[in-house]
Backbone:
């Protein structure tokens, strides 16, 4: 999947792509055709940089309901010829998830689309998972024949079926089909269930990896073999090293951390950092200067895991460095620093935004630290991140930091956050939004009555709307 192209934050499309609450508020006041066009664009061209963790489906489904939107474009997208050639989940996953939420809200047309796609679409397993949560037994039973027809009855086909049954995210349809009165259905599904259970048992009985009695050198070689296969194993290798290394092995580990192979060096650095070895800091600094990209990343990760007073003191000395080690030091101070470190954390935050933009990965930790330390003068930078980032998770972190640093948050961004795509952001808003705004009161009541809303959000809402405030 290509990285999505995100429209400017001041446009309706840009707001909806980001999942901002202002996107819904603007869409409801825009011409309906324009709002639906932007909404369909988002649903059919997933705007998330990390589609596996960022939420959009409930956000878009609610807007479809508010606009009474038709599903013609989603239907065309699901059943176009590209579905045969582009079978990546990311092409249709968001559309199917939106349909799932619409079905739970009672949209019969969405339920029928899911059933049709589960019977004939490439991403049928996702559609089946959505139906497993919303459809009745009769609807699911009707899908048994077309789903099973996807798998040949030869040994290879039955093996593929067993893997699908074993790895099913929602097991309800398969359990239902295992008890189907049609013997041709129930027999195949039961056999697949048994084969999947046996395969799982076999895999558990054949563990791969280090064995008791390994030497330090054997652990280093195993880590390097992982790199050569394209798998970074230095983290488990470091844990294994903790079990096999003794005091007499320290010189060998220090030598590996200085100039060993990439696998050995990354493993040794992780081990030394986790052990709070006094030489770890100098070796990490050396690795950042002389190591390969993999070693540099491992060195930075190892340093940021450290929680000792000595590590925080070293971070204060490194924080002004204009290199990745300086950035890591800033993140450590954001997590562990005290009031005396506010200027260093603020400088790291500003430098990250200036140098890498509002979507820099380093901002996640720095934004959290800014809120933790209560750096009030960081509010303008946090507002910029909130508006511009394409990551709904980072925006939520910025909202949490603003709640701790910006006195205007309750009457400003907190209001729009009630419509945000992320439930954690809606929870923050529910706890802070100023109820003097009529929109806030109405939105809190709607969230409290919405069965699709997360329990944490509704708990926050109830903390604002109780017996003494029912007449707000």
Residues:
């Amino acid at each position: 999947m290509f990285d999505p192209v995100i429209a400017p934050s001041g446009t309706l499309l840009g707001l909806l792509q980001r999942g901002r609450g202002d996107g819904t508020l603007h869409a409801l006041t825009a011409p309906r055709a324009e709002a639906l066009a932007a909404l369909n664009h988002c649903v059919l061209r997933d705007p998330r940089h990390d589609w596996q963790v960022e939420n959009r489906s409930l956000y878009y489904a609610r807007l479809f309901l508010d606009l009474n939107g038709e599903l013609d474009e989603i239907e065309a997208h699901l059943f176009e010829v590209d579905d045969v050639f582009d079978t990546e989940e990311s092409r249709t996953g968001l559309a199917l998830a939106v349909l799932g939420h619409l079905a739970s809200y009672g949209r019969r047309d969405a339920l029928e689309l899911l059933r049709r796609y589960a019977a004939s679409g490439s991403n049928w397993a996702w559609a089946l998972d959505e139906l497993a949560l919303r459809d009745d037994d009769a609807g699911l039973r009707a899908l048994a024949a077309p789903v099973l027809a996807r798998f040949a009855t030869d040994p290879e086909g039955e093996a593929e079926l067993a893997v699908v049954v074993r790895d099913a995210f929602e097991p309800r349809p398969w359990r239902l089909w295992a008890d189907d009165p049609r013997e041709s259905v129930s027999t195949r599904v039961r056999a697949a269930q048994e084969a999947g259970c046996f395969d799982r048992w076999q895999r558990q009985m054949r563990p791969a990896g280090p064995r008791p009695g390994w030497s330090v050198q054997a652990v280093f070689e195993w880590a390097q073999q992982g790199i050569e296969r394209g798998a970074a194993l230095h983290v488990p290798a470091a844990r294994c090293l903790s079990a096999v290394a003794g005091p007499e092995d320290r010189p060998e580990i220090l030598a590996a951390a200085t100039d060993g192979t990439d696998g050995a060096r990354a493993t040794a650095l992780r081990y030394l950092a986790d052990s709070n070895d006094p030489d770890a800091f100098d070796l990490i600094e050396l690795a950042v200067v002389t190591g390969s990209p993999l070693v540099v990343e491992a060195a930075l990760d190892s340093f940021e895991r450290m929680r000792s007073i000595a590590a925080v003191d070293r971070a204060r000395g490194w924080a002004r460095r204009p290199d990745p080690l300086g950035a890591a030091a800033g993140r450590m101070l954001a997590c562990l620093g005290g009031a005396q470190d506010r200027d260093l954390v603020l400088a790291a935050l500003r430098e990250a935004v200036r140098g890498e933009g509002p979507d820099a990965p380093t901002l996640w930790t720095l934004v959290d630290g800014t809120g933790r330390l209560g750096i009030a003068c960081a509010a303008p930078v946090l507002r910029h991140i909130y508006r511009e980032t394409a990551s709904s998770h980072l925006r939520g972190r910025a909202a949490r930091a603003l709640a701790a640093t910006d006195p205007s948050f309750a009457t400003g961004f907190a209001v729009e956050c009630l419509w945000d795509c992320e439930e954690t952001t809606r929870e923050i808003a529910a706890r802070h939004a100023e109820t003097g705004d009529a929109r806030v009161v109405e939105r809190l009541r709607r969230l409290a009555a919405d069965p699709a809303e997360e329990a944490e959000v509704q708990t926050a809402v109830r903390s604002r709307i109780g017996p003494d405030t029912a007449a707000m």
Q: What stands out?
A: The two ends are 47 Å apart (CA to CA). Confidence is low (pLDDT under 50) at residues 468-472.
